[in-house]
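Board notes, transcribed. Complex of a protein with FVH.
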Amino acid sequence: MTDVTVLGLGAMGSALATALLDGGRSMTVWNRTPGRAKDLVTRGAGAADSVAAAVLASPVVIACLLDHSSVEETLGLAVDELRGRTLVNVTTTTPNEARALASWTAEHGIDYLDGAIMAVPAMIGSRAGQIFYSGSRAAYDALLPTLDVWTTSEYHGEDAGQASLVDLAMLSGMYQMFTGFFHGAAMAATMGMSASDFAARQAPFLAAMTEELAGYAKVIDGGDYTVAGQQSLEFSDLSHIVRASEEQGIDPAPIAAVQALISREIDAGYGSEGLPRVVESLRADG
Ligand code: FVH
């Protein structure tokens, strides 16, 4: 028997396994395509040639595969062997996919903890990243010393979907920021400005604008978008940015999507209310 089993030795799975070995855990590993365990085996890990054998080797099984379907496919190969064990699934899934796995594992007597990794492989083994967890509180509490080997851990409740929800909500903000930069760089390029020159301007500006988020959050949590001192939706009309993008021959899609949310609230009669009211437009659409 070993302390933990790791299913999946891709870029992230390998980093997680390596950190656990560095942290003194004994380990059994499995990967769909053989041949990815060499370095880990050299360092003392056991390599199983089937999912079932890998699961039987440890009381705790960690799945770091590609997506929900790969997890379902892999776990389906060792349902009986998983019974009575703890499964920590750190594969990226949606909240409902995590909840479906929690239901499935409950039916099969498996203790389930879902994890969402807010880190790249290079950050594993340092305090630079975060991994959010949700699902079995007992499993989280029992495994925390092991989970902390990877990076900082944060528990978000018994609803197995919560960790993924926080993760994907934060990633949504990040990718929309990136897309805003890409759009701005495309506009600036039409005047001959390089993306690097644009980034040198945009990065400090965006960093400064993140100071606004706490104020917007306070209004949203308070639910009163008429609070004085806010930038109104009417003042936030962005149609001139949309037109400027089109005039320069750049697809305005990202900024047009923002303008559509603002226009929806203005058309509904809330033009004098604050910009954060866009949240209500999104909730209405949700
Ligand atoms: N890499 C990153 O920076 C991100 C950071 C945030 C979290 N993600 C998530 O971590 C999961 C694994 O990501 P990864 O980067 O390790 O991905 P790959 O290197 O492509 O490895 C994928 C492993 O999954 C195995 N696999 C794929 N499909 C199946 C399947 N149908 N059955 C069994 N295993 C499968 C694959 O095996 P193989 O291709 O070597 O045979 C790899 O072991 C992921 O959810 C990210 O969103 C990483």
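The radius of gyration is 23 Å. Residues 179 and 234 are 24 Å apart (CA to CA).
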